[in-house]
Every structure is written in C-alpha cells, then in structure tokens.
Amino acid sequence: MNRPTPDDLILRHALRLDGLATGTMQAIAADIAEALAKVEAELRRRAPDDAPFTFARFLAVRRELQALAAALAGALEARIAGAVTATIETASPAVAGALAALEPITIDLGASVSLTVRFIDVAPEVLAKVADVPHDGMSWARWGRKLADDVTARVTSELRQGASLGETIPQLRKRLEVVEGLGRVSAERLARTAINATGNRARMEVFKANSGPNGVLKGWRFLATLDGRTSRICSALSGTEWSFDDPDAPKPPRHPNCRSVALPLTKSWAELLGPDAADLDEAPLGTQASASGPVSANWTYEDWLRRQPREFQRETLGETRYRAWKDGLPLSAFATYDRPLSIDELRRLYPTTMGA
C-alpha cells in the first residue's frame, strides 16, 4: 500500500499555499483594477473624452485620487494580512500530519517496535511572532500598503505626463492600462513571496519544536522547483542539508517569487527505534512535481536537469554555463546563497573549466 510520506504532505501544504498566493494575487489585481476604473470614471465625469487633459483638470481630481489611494491601501494591507494569517494557522497541522505519516511506515517495513510520534504543537500566535517577521524593515501587510502607494504614485505620474501633453481620455486610459499591468506583476511578486516566506518560516519553527533528543527530526533539506524557471541561486542550493541551529543556513525564499521549500530531515530508524532497527530500510521517499512529471523527492535540481533533453539544458543554463557544466562544473558553482555569479566571475574562479 502506498502511504503518503512526510515529504509528500509538506509539499501538499506548499501547493495549497501556492493556490492561496494565486488567489491573493488575483484579489489584489482586482482591487487595483477597480481603483483605476474609478479614476477613469472620475476623469470622464469632468470633461468629454475628446477634450485635452489639462493641469487644471489634473489638480481637480487629486483629492479624489487621495481618497482612492487610502481605500486601496487599506484593502491591499488587509488582503496580505489575511493570507499571512491563513498561512500561519495551517503550518502546524500540516507538519503534524506529515510526522504522523511516519508511524504506519514502520509497520510496512516490518519493524518489531512500533514508532510513536510525540508531536509538539506550536500555537498560531507563537508562530506569528517568528513567521511574519519584517522584510526589509516592514511586515508583509505593510508591503501591501506600499504596493497601493506605488500604484497611486504611478497613476499620479502618468496623469501629470498626460496633462503636459494635452492627451484625451482614451490616451489616458492606455496609460492606466500600463499601470494596471505593472500592478498585477507586483501583486504576484508580493503575494507569492510573502506566503512562501511565511509558510517556510512557520513550518521551520514547528520542525525545530519537533527536533532535539526527544524529537523525530534532525534538520532540513532545501528543495527547489524542477522546471526551467528556477533561479540559479535555488538550483545551486537544491538538495543541500542543514541543521536547525546553523545561523548561516540559506532558508527559502532566497529571492522575490521564490518557490523553494524547506523539507524536514527525519532521524534514522536506529535513532528513533533503537539498535534493533538498524537493519531496516530508511523511510520511503515521497515524490515531487517537475516539468517532466512526478519524480523522487530526493532528486536535486541537478539530478533532474541531467535527465532532460540537451536543448533544454542549453536553454536553461546558457551556452557558456552549459559547456562548463558538461565539463564537470556543478550547478552549485554558479551562484552564492544570495545571487548568481556572472560569466566574468566564474571565469576568474574557474579559469580551466570556464575558459578564457
């Protein structure tokens, strides 16, 4: 019987959070679109479509713009705050289910001693203190308000430029469409980064609570998404393992829109059940999604990439990095924990493999 593994259940939680991020992004984009529609309606109310937009008209709508900006800021802040709260509330139950999946695995392996997982719960209010930590000095909810401020600033700038050129309402509408498109991109980046960061941090705290002498976990593993959009930073870190007390551990997310996940590392059966269990096979691995279909959860990005067509490898790495990789330079060499290395930097570090 195929039972879900801890990895499977953690990845299912990450997938649910990805759905939450998509829904949050769509809601934010709809809020921005509604605000811009009100701006356009206010412009149309004050003059015919074919009348030139003047600075006098621009000044006349500024008060309305300020009111719309305040309403949009409150809406976006609430959207992100709600998504972060939902993320935190689901983290501990997700880990509880993942660790509980270890108990029946020992039966499948024929262990003479049954494993009992003593799960240590972490309350949402405790997780909230460590999961929604400031990012560049602001909470994620405050970043929602900043997104609204940025949209308003773009609208103001576009209308000022339109006034200087004496544009008509149809021309101004095209400017607002550009603002809406930029707002959608920013909404996706904010929603995905905020929810992935919060989800990983919250699960990590629950992992830590269930480690130590009486816990079942001993560390965590970096898992990168297996497709052509994965960053060089995350592909370089894929599969690396870390202890919970390592202050330099590169916890995901590593960059905006990062989709990487921290997976728990379970102690060996001998550590959990005693010396009599030393001859048991290790816990079965789960699967992870990839652009080419489900694959083993222990595959790193490099394991997966080696099994892809040569054309895909070239497209993903670029010709120069592809040649160096085929000559033996690992993906881990192409980036630091925080940024990809340029071709010039790689040539200085690896002159033989990279070539002049």
Would you identify the regions where 5 or more consecutive residues have pLDDT less than 50?
none
Q: What is the CA-atom radius of gyration, in angstroms?
A: 25 Å
Q: Tell me the count of domains.
A: 1
Mean pLDDT figure:
89
Shape: globular
Q: What is the distance, rounded to the nearest whole angstrom, between the alpha carbons of the first and last residues?
A: 55 Å
How many β-strand stretches?
5
Structural class computed from helices and strand pairing: mainly alpha
Q: Would you mind describing this structure in some detail?
A:
The protein contains 13 helices and 5 strands. The protein is mainly alpha-helical and 356 residues long. It has one domain (6-308). The strands form 2 sheets. A 3-stranded antiparallel sheet has the order 2-1-3. Strands 4-5 form a two-stranded antiparallel sheet. α1 (6-46) runs antiparallel to α2 and α2 crosses α4.
Summarize the structure.
By secondary structure, this protein is mainly alpha-helical. The protein is built from 13 helices and five strands.
Descriptive keywords:
single chain, 356 residues, mainly alpha, two-stranded antiparallel sheet, 5 strands, 60% helix, 5% strand
Topology:
Elements lengths: L5 H41 L8 H46 L1 H7 L15 H8 L8 H26 L3 H41 L7 E7 L8 H6 L3 E2 L18 E6 L2 H5 L13 E2 L6 E2 L4 H6 L3 H8 L1 H8 L16 H7 L1 H4 L2
Antiparallel strand pairs: 1-2, 1-3, 4-5
